[in-house]
Amino acid sequence: MDFTSQVVMVTGANGGIGSAIVNELLKTKASKIYACARNTDSLKGMFSDSRVQPVELDITKQENVKSAAAKCSDVTVLINNAGVAMGGLLGSQEKARIEIEVNYFGTHSMCTFFAPVLKNNGGGCIVNIASLLSFVNMPSIGTYSATKAAVHSLTQGLRGILTAQGTKIIGVYPGPVETRATKGLQMPMAKPDDVAAEIVIGIIEEREEIFPDKMSKEVMQGLAVDPKAVERQLGSC
Length: 237
Ligand SMILES: NC(=O)c1ccc[n+]([C@@H]2O[C@H](COP(=O)([O-])OP(=O)(O)OC[C@H]3O[C@@H](n4cnc5c(N)ncnc54)[C@H](OP(=O)(O)O)[C@@H]3O)[C@@H](O)[C@H]2O)c1
Prior knowledge:
Elements: E1 7-10, H1 16-25, E2 32-37, E3 52-56, H2 62-71, E4 77-80, H3 94-120, E5 125-129, H4 142-162, E6 168-172, H5 192-204, E7 209-210, H6 214-225, H7 227-235
Parallel strand pairs: 1-2, 1-4, 2-3, 4-5, 5-6, 6-7
Helix pairs in contact: 1-5, 2-3, 3-4, 6-7
The structure holds NADP nicotinamide-adenine-dinucleotide phosphate.
């Protein structure tokens, strides 16, 4: 897919992987980039290019998503990047409910309200930022892993129903990336800029599944050879 003249929307664009994707898109000939954030003040001074337009958007609020779809009716590429990871597996469901609301239901709302927009604009593309943990659970962020498995399943289903309207569906499955979300985590991590560059290349090449860093590629190879060994290995993390 050529980004020339595309109108791209990126959710959670005020930092981490999201802002790195916007910066990477600015190297292409995309005509407009809607940079979404729950609070657009957080975008101030972040992007100096006039192609970037801030949009206030909380993806857990359906009315908010619906009005964004009405207002930004020229979107041709939707990048669902917004997400949260709160930690833990068993115990109180309070954090787990927030994770599922944002990561799964929020992404689901975005796809629901933007699928007709993309159809009207000729098909376009939906890119869901899932996780390597869509494929194997890491108990220290076990409820998060479960939400990302759900996002992967949603992505597969969308491919099934939206291909007919010409919408390309891409899933992205990063390993650990150095962002706010992983602050304090003691393990090798990819840089957001490198991950964003791989994501944009993957979209251009129309890869259905993008593994944008070394660890995601290695773990996927491990899963293909011995999935139970990988499950046991991550089970202690
Ligand atoms: N970092 C990793 O190791 C890693 C690995 C695999 C996948 N991912 C995924 O990559 C994506 C980006 O994460 P990141 O690492 O860049 O983390 P991050 O820096 O914490 O960014 C998360 C973004 O999501 C936004 N967000 C949270 N709740 C939202 C809501 N209800 N509505 C709209 N936006 C919301 C945040 O906005 P606020 O500033 O308003 O909170 C922030 O912009 C997430 O989907 C994450 O699960 C990350």
